[in-house]
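Data card: per-record layout.
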Amino acid sequence: MNKEEELLRKKSPINIKNKKASFEYFFVDVLTAGIVLTGTEIKSIRMGKASLVDSYCHIHNNEIWVKGMNISPYFYGSYSNHESKRERKLLLTRREIHKLDEASKLPGYTIVPILLFIDDKGRAKLDIALARGKKVYDKRQTMKEKEDRREMDRAVKRY
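The structure for this 159-residue chain is written out next.
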């Protein structure tokens, strides 16, 4: 990811993160994918009514799908409202899907969504990561590093 892409993500009005994923996994490779959505789903995302908690990606028939992503029903939607936890297709190139498929077959690896955002053209994008699970002692180390950073920031602010 280059600096221009990071700037776009920071400028995006919507940044829905999967904080639990960074605690549970090491990210090996990160890709940005488009999402196939209906009209009321994109409206709900623009209102910030989505969640990536307990969501994951799987590959079926050379297509990648995200499962468990919750997009709340649109408040002003009528009979055309969407189902909140349906599977949604992700848009990646054939080469990227093949690479993820081969890597996710290895033991301990999975594909998790980490960030949902709106790009500069108004389209919803999803950052997905090939991830390797952390052991308990890795999680403790992550918590310790986070506490140390927090204490250092407090010390700097005091002086």
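Known properties of this structure: The two ends are 35 Å apart (CA to CA). The chain has a mean pLDDT of 87.

See the next section for split statistics.
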